[in-house]
Q: What sequence folds into this?
């Protein structure tokens, strides 16, 4: 396969920038994990709040780079012509680097308490979670989004000719800029400030990124499996419709305790409980589309990450979001590590993995090495996948202990009481972080040098016969996929009950944590293990196609994978 | 899963009805939002809250400028390294906060909080003039002093000025006054002792709660040793190192009889009179490079022989 339009080449630089930012973000994550264990580490040099601001902002920036790369790659294909004004995309690339470097340094001003107040606005940095960037960087980012939206919308054909993927990406790039505007003014009231902060954070993730994600996943399935654009379009339409219909009022789950009235608890609990619907839908669709043909995987790492992205979207964003979406469970999970487990799986899993999938899809094509060695990419996938699942486990169980000690027992000395109780899980965090970091290093190395390394000897043929007893490699049926899905939700229900059980007088008044601990101890490991096994099973069934007898050797683009 | 047989006609009306439904939901959302911020809700607002001359509005800017949310949560949002700050004013009160914030690396002692109570702003805000009444009113301060007083925290010292500290207290007063619909949930698990036991078990408890208020015996015969005890009791060491390093205020190592540059450009020799004056009236002579007003005046708190004992202790500290 080769590219059809020259301007698709512009995507490669964004993927490479994405990998650089990803590696730096992971390094900051490791620093934060170590500081969770010993908060005095690097104190005075790199305080936790600055390291965390870098970690969050770099995370957002590399995910956005992945989006830009993927959109620049697919937009000419969707438009059936070259991008208009490619110089703007080239300019955007350097602008992104400039903004990242500028914001990286201005964040350190928080250690001196310098926000750069002028005309009532903080121009250098503003100390709001996820929106730490000051007004200068914020306005430049807005310009960047406008450039992207302009190029994409001008490149696309007339609206009358749009299919659902056009609609998804068109709405996505437009809304990316519109929603960002809500973070560009200073609000004096705390409740109103938080109200608008979630406009950006929630509507970005739930409204805009999700829409771009659904559209891109759909289109990559078309590219990889030659799936029917109409049937993918059907999924994209319902995905977007359900995301927006549930997510618009679903934002109310952020308005339970920030000083806004009680009625939000009703609306938030009701609508955001519907938010996993589109994710289940998307999950189901990747199963169907991946099974529309029986050809072997042409680009294994790209599909691994696409699958990881969809599954973690369901598990991390969908199920782990669902468990804490009700006012009666959220009252306990709010402001604890429980939410961080959800956030890492949802953000890195859903959006990060999509960017890496796009990079793995596009890079071999752009570098003209379709027969690249996929082994490092597969290894990298398993490392980051296991790493992020392990981190989510540490966050979730550590968070459950935190809820008990901090909220039920009301002991608010982190150094003396809370950290002490969470100790084991605080240590697990950097351990699994190391697994993820290793994977990130492997991925970055593999993608940087892809096509520049010596080709290895032909790998040994993968084992393709189903295991006699378990049938591990036999094709995955819809029935079996449904059973896996049910198992995930079963453990999700157990986790929900665990959070609910904190309301029982036996726990809350008598102070006995056994029930929530047991339910969390069953629910989280169960959910994460089922997730791991399911992805393993799904991939095994697809890999077994590599030498399935029905496939003519001429169609086998890749050597069999080991 | 496909949509009809090849033509997209079945999708268009759905797009329209989906948009219509979305519009209805947006209207609901907007209506709820408007109701949330009507004055009739009676929610506290920062322009109505102040602490002495300091406005909560200014405090919010300080809170953002130092990115406090990067370690702490506020109304539950932020990072989870340190405690939630929404109700810290209500629990610990303004004097404890005033003693803590300039030297966040150390936990204030009772005497350090008492020193803050001399501030007329504190007096006006708390309505109490004795430490006992204060600790009665803010049991969170009493518990913090008893369990941690004089120890080190896990928080870094921040270069907060006197005004910034007052503004932050005003802001935390505002957040404490907010109606957050019952969050954080009320603790119903009994007394502090019982809860500590539940958290750590009966055996480990002894290590968690240090022997409260180790009996301080004034050693009049050895002024330097007494002084060393006094600087601990009064929490001076939260800001002043025994070597020449800067924690918050100047380090004490080798200070005695050295030449000190002052903020007004003058120079002064650190003799007994200068040291005693700097304890009693710290703002009379400000050392170059340090902001004024951060250290409370110990004029009425310390007796003459106590000041002498501290000065005698300072004599013994060598530059390292």
A:
């Amino acid at each position: 396969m080769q590219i059809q339009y020259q301007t698709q080449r512009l995507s490669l630089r964004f993927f490479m920038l994405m990998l650089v930012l990803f590696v730096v973000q992971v390094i900051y994550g490791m620093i934060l994990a170590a500081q969770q264990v010993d908060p005095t580490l690097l104190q005075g040099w790199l305080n936790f709040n600055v390291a965390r601001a870098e970690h969050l902002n770099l995370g957002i920036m590399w995910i956005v780079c992945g989006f830009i790369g993927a959109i620049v790659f697919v937009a000419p294909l969707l438009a059936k012509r070259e991008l208009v004004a490619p110089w703007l995309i080239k300019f955007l690339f350097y602008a992104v680097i400039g903004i990242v470097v500028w914001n990286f340094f201005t964040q350190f001003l928080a250690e001196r308490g310098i926000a750069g107040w002028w005309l009532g606005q903080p121009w250098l940095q503003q100390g709001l979670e996820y929106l730490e960037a000051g007004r200068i960087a914020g306005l430049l980012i807005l310009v960047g989004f406008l450039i992207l939206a302009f190029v994409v919308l001008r490149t696309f054909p007339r609206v009358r000719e749009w299919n659902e993927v056009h609609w998804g990406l068109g709405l996505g790039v437009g809304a990316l800029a519109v929603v960002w505007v809500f973070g560009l003014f200073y609000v004096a009231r705390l409740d109103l400030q938080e109200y608008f902060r979630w406009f950006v954070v929630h509507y970005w993730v739930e409204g805009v990124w999700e829409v771009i994600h659904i559209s891109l996943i759909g289109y990559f399935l078309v590219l990889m499996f030659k799936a029917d654009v109409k049937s993918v379009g059907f999924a994209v339409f319902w995905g977007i419709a359900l995301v927006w219909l549930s997510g618009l009022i679903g934002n109310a789950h952020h308005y339970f305790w920030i000083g806004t009235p009680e009625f939000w608890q009703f609306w938030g609990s009701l609508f955001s409980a519907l938010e996993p619907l589109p994710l289940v839908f998307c999950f189901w669709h990747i199963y169907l589309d991946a099974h529309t043909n029986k050809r072997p995987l042409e680009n294994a790492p790209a599909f691994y990450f696409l699958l990881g992205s969809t599954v973690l979207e369901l598990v991390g964003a969908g199920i782990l979001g669902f468990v804490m979406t009700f006012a009666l469970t959220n009252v306990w999970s709010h402001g604890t590590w429980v939410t961080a487990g959800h956030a890492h799986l949802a953000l890195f899993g859903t959006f990060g993995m999509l960017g890496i999938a796009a990079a793995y899809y596009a890079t071999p094509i752009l570098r003209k090495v379709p027969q690249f060695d996929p082994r490092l990419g597969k290894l990298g996938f398993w490392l980051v996948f296991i790493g992020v699942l392990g981190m989510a486990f540490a966050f979730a169980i550590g968070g459950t202990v935190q809820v008990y000690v901090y909220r039920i027992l009301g002991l608010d000395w982190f150094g003396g009481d809370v950290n002490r109780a969470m100790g084991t899980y605080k240590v697990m965090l950097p351990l699994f972080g190391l697994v993820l970091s290793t994977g990130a290093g492997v991925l970055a190395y593999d993608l940087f040098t892809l096509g520049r390394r010596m080709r290895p000897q032909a790998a040994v043929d993968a084992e393709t016969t189903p295991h006699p007893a378990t049938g591990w490699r036999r094709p995955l049926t819809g029935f079996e996929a449904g059973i896996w899905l049910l198992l995930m939700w079963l453990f999700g229900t157990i986790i929900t009950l665990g959070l609910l059980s904190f309301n029982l007088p036996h726990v809350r008044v008598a102070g006995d944590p056994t029930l929530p601990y047991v339910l969390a101890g069953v629910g989280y490991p169960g959910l994460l293990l089922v997730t791991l096994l399911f992805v393993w099973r799904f991939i095994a069934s697809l890999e077994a196609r590599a030498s399935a007898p029905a496939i003519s050797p001429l169609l086998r683009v890749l050597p069999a994978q080991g | 899963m496909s949509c009809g047989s090849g033509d997209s006609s079945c999708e268009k009306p759905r797009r329209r009805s989906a948009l219509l439904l979305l519009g209805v939901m947006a209207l609901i959302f907007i209506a709820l939002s408007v109701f949330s911020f009507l004055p009739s809700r009676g929610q506290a607002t920062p322009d109505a809250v102040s602490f002495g001359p300091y406005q909560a509005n200014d405090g919010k800017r300080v809170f953002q400028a130092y990115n406090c949310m990067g370690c702490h949560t506020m109304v539950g949002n932020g990072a989870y390294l340190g405690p939630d700050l929404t109700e810290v004013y209500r629990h610990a009160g303004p004097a404890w906060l005033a003693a803590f914030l300039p030297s966040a690396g150390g936990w204030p002692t009772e005497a350090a909080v008492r020193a803050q109570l001399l501030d007329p702003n504190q007096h006006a805000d708390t309505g109490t003039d004795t430490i006992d009444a204060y600790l009665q009113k803010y049991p969170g301060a009493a518990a913090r002093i008893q369990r941690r007083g004089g120890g080190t925290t896990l928080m870094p010292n921040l270069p907060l000025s006197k005004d910034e500290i007052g503004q932050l207290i005003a802001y935390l007063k505002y957040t404490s006054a907010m109606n957050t619909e019952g969050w954080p949930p009320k603790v119903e698990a009994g007394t502090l002792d019982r809860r500590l036991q539940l958290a750590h078990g009966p055996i480990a408890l002894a290590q968690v709660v240090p022997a409260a208020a180790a009996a301080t015996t004034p050693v009049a015969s050895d002024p330097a040793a007494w002084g060393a005890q006094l600087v601990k009791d009064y929490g001076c060491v939260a800001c002043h190192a025994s070597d020449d390093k800067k924690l918050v205020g100047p380090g004490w190592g080798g200070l005695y009889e050295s030449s000190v540059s002052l903020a007004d450009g003058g120079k002064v020799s650190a003799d007994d009179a200068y040291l005693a004056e700097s304890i009693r009236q710290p703002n009379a002579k400000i050392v170059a490079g340090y902001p004024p007003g951060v250290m409370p005046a110990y004029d009425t708190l310390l007796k003459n022989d106590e000041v002498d004992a501290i000065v005698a202790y300072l004599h013994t500290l060598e530059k390292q």
